[in-house]
Amino acid sequence: MEKTITNKVENSGIVSIDLEDFYPKGERVLFDIKPLLFQELMLKEKDFRAYLKEHDWTQYKDKFVAIFCSNDAIVPTWAYMLIALELEQIAKKVIFGNLETLEVVLFKDVLKNINFESYIDKRVVIKGCGNLPITSDAFINFAMALKPYAKSIMYGEPCSTVPLYKAPKKL
Description:
single chain; 2 domains
């Protein structure tokens, strides 16, 4: 008598979602304004504007760029704005902040294009481990966007999950 091995996970109707499938492809780069500051403390407008004119902006073509200052210096807002205006026609996306902030902004853009209606009344597992830098913010926002549609939301792997949400039973 042969025993048939049944994959209970596969037969459970659980939908597994890997946020890496939604990860925007493209290089992420930081544009640090610190080297452009006089003694790394203050901005000299004339020197700054000269740098902007001479700088090779093509190196940012089709990249995601985060503009920031790694030094505790007072940088006028217009300086960041000038850099952003130089980059906006070349880069895929330009934001103010660090690389984590960039990832948060990119994933919020992604969320706008996901059809959550395809998860109506589904039992969903949001895959937790991966190779790409998916932020906690991305997981949180995805779960909140999914909640109105899903029957249940879990985190982890289909064989070992942490329950997060279960919709109230319908009358």
